[in-house]
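Input sequence (106 aa), recorded before submission:
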Amino acid sequence: MALGIHIAYSYTYGANNLYRSPTQYHGNGEVNMSEKSLSKNIKKDHKEIPFVVWLWAMGLGFLSYLVARVALYTAPHPFHWASGAVGAVLGFFVGWLWYRWKGDVI
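Predicted structure, token format:
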């Protein structure tokens, strides 16, 4: 019933509002100011970090931690964590190179 009234309204007044919500548009088809300001704040190019980059960063970070743990057995524990952090940063960049070269794994 409401759809019939809405279609009759749009044909009667000449506004092509068949698929437009009355709260978002004026009767003449013009967008409300609040909707205009909302559309400007939305980012169109929202990109996330690909899975392969996370995989390389975590994998290389963990592997470098394990290698440092074995190689630096007598060294203090912060050296192991530092080598894991360096490996994770290196893995981050290797992951981006892999993503640019072969694409994502998923």
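Checked by second reader. The CA atoms of residues 57 and 89 lie 6 Å apart.
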